[in-house]
Design a protein that fits this description.
Rossmann fold, seven-stranded parallel β-sheet, alpha/beta, 7 strands
Length: 236
């Protein structure tokens, strides 16, 4: 039985973030999500925040702390893409993706670490991507932001590992979302050919791995990159 914790999931209003928040609720945790618009699943507290805005994040954390208690588990999931070939990518296309996906995770984790240090307990989970270590044509900005999370988690582990705080990276592969569903059948078939499992993951499969890393059972795992990709990125 896992101890009920106060959990904050960034970008919890859709896709994988929504599934992560739902899983934590199902397991009996107190769950808040940040969202720029929309809201999290039933049973969650939705707070307005953009991960590029430190002041808004601070206010969101303060609200969660007041209503649910200090954040013990933080899942940095909020992310954006601006896919295009290197030659066409503007500097803004690059820096915007880094600012949300990598610097955003830094801002969230820095604010969360205050309460975790006080409690001598914390679970920091950064949502990366198979592309972070495998690379992706047309995704120089996105891949750089997602591989940066590995250095972040490993450095946090070295800094805070003796305080009961773990920091890990989960790297999903192709997930069944509205976005992948819109891809032409032929393209979907091509992608599936490159995945040993022969299928895309469900968002719930990713969510359950994340919930397990936050559990009491995973207390001795830190600085790890855990793939949930059906074998797509093996060896990376």
């Amino acid at each position: 039985m896992t101890t009920p914790r106060t959990v904050l999931v960034t970008g919890g209003n859709r896709g994988i973030g929504f599934a992560i928040a739902s899983e934590f609720v199902a397991q009996g945790h107190r769950v808040a999500v940040t969202a720029r618009s929309g809201s999290g699943p039933a049973g969650t507290l939705t707070v307005r925040a953009d991960v590029t805005d430190s002041a808004a994040l601070d206010a969101a954390f303060t609200q969660v702390e007041a209503e649910l208690g200090p954040v013990e588990v933080v899942v940095a999931n909020a992310g954006i893409t601006r896919d295009m070939l290197l030659m066409r990518m503007s500097e803004e296309d690059f820096t915007d993706v880094i600012d949300t996906n990598l610097s955003g995770a830094f801002r969230v984790v820095k604010r969360a670490s205050k309460g975790m240090l006080k409690a001598k307990f914390g679970r920091i989970i950064l949502v990366s991507s198979v592309v972070g270590l495998l690379g992706g044509a047309g995704q120089v900005n996105y891949a750089a932001s997602k591989s940066g999370l590995v250095g972040l988690a490993r450095s946090i582990t070295r800094e805070l590992g003796s305080r009961g705080i773990t920091a890990n990276v989960v790297a999903p592969g192709f997930i069944e979302t509205d976005m992948t569903a819109e891809l032409p059948e032929q393209q979907q078939a091509e992608y599936k050919k490159s995945i040993p499992a022969g299928r895309f993951a469900t968002a719930e499969e990713v969510a359950r791995v994340i919930a397990w890393i936050a559990s009491d059972d995973a207390a001795y795992i830190s600085g790890a990159v855990i793939p949930v990709d059906g074998g797509l990125g093996m060896g990376h």
